[in-house]
Amino acid sequence: MPFSPERALRTIAFFPPRLATGGTQRHLLEVLRFLDRTRFQPLVISAKSGGELADAIRDLGVELIDLGLGERLLSADLARCVRATASVLRARAVDVVQSFQWRPALIALGATRLAGRGRIVAGRRSVPTEHGMRGMLEEIVVQFADRVVVNAESLRPRGRAGRRTEVIPSGVDTERFDPRVIDRAAAKHALGIPADVVAIGTVGRLETRKGTRTLIEATARLRETPRAPFVVVAGDGPLRDELAALAARLGIAERVRFLGNREDVRAVLAALDAFVLPSLTEGMSNALLEAMAMALPVIATDVGGNPEVIGDAMTGMLIPADQPEAMANAIAQLLGDPERQRRLGAAARRRVEERYGARAMVRQLESIYAAVAAREPLARSAAHTTAREPA
Q1: Residue 292, Cβ neighbours under 10 Å: how many?
Q2: Is the separation of the CB atoms in 44 and 63 below 8 Å?
Q3: Is the per-residue pLDDT at 1 higher than 60?
Q4: Cα–chain center distance at 58
Q5: Residues 23/24/29/35 CA torsion (nearest 10 deg)
Q6: What is the pLDDT of residue 254?
Q7: Among residues of the chain, what percentage have pLDDT more than 90?
Q8: DSSP-assigned beta bridge partners for residue 165
Q9: pLDDT tens track for 187-226
Q10: What would the mean pLDDT of 72-90 be, rounded to a whole number?
Q11: How many CB atoms neighbour CB 54 within 10 A?
């Protein structure tokens, strides 16, 4: 039978940031879980050691290679990592390197040039925040990638790179994130939250751009109300101590639970009565999609891809970013109307089922990997398509 590029087994090397719990990393797990292994052989190259998701990757039967890069990317150790990655690309006959974020992408870019094989698909999943030298390096990655994939139209780069860009919305496994398979009362009990207490929460890295400070300040404004919420924060980061101190200073420390990084995001969401995404900037939030899949009523800031996900007021509530008073008012309105909570939660679940299924998202990615490996030109823009689950 004659050779067919479509039937050839392509090796895809995924190059994520540190393997700690986060939206990008959970996205990677979804891709690895649903990737067609009859067409694609995945492996994961991690620049930095550690991370609680390493075992999850291996459990999926995927090879994980750890480069052991130090804390500073721009160091003498960078050249060693580039050489090591080039050796892997040659030894594993890698066809495509899917990179996430500019730091690992920079290593991948140098390694593909050195190895003389492997084409770069650069993923952009959040608004660029780097400036100076780091901002310039991030821009180099985007400009030199063979293809760019973003998860929201607002993230499309300018100029020629924008014409090599596909927009593929994030996807969530709607079978795994299914509100019917988890008991909310039991989930609350597991987190030490009384069953009769209203719990709201968020999931995300504790850094400035995620806006967790706004959520805490909004919660403080509600502490004397009849249905003052208990707040669950899943995630870790450089602002954890500062945010805990803020909660104490505002007199709500006993009503805010910082969980740290959690692999069982589904169990955390199952304990909530409503979900709040307080981001100052955002691409397309995996946490928001997962909360909606769990039939939670959602409040999100009107930034980045959030309006694309929520769509309209029948599916969720959009509020201005960095405005604690507006957030407090939205939370109070939502918690004061149980029927609206139910209605918004059901609509959110339907929207994710119809538009943001993980399997359909991975099928779109596979078409890009196949085209890039075969050196086919960009056939069309996916800017206005959505990842739908097959009927």
Answers
A1: 32
A2: yes
A3: no
A4: 20
A5: 130
A6: 94
A7: 62
A8: 148
A9: 999 999 988 899 999 999 999 999 999 999 999 999 988 8
A10: 83
A11: 16
- Which residues 6+ apart lie within 8 Å of 70 measured at CB? 77
| Residues 169, 383: Cα–Cα separation, whole Å | 9
How many CB atoms within 10 Å of residue 139?
Answer: 17
CA torsion sign, 140 to 141 to 142 to 147?
A: positive
Which of 134-138, 142-146, 214-218, 289-293 is predicted least confidently? 134-138
Q: How many CB atoms lie within 10 A of CB 238?
A: 10
Tokens of 304: 């980045």
Sign of CA dihedral 289, 158, 103, 147: positive
Read off the pLDDT band of 74 (50, 70, 90): low
One-letter amino acid identity for 343?
Answer: R
The DSSP call for residue 157 is: P
Q: Taking a C-beta distance cutoff of 8 angstroms, is the pair 19, 47 a contact?
A: no
Average pLDDT of the residues in 300-317: 93
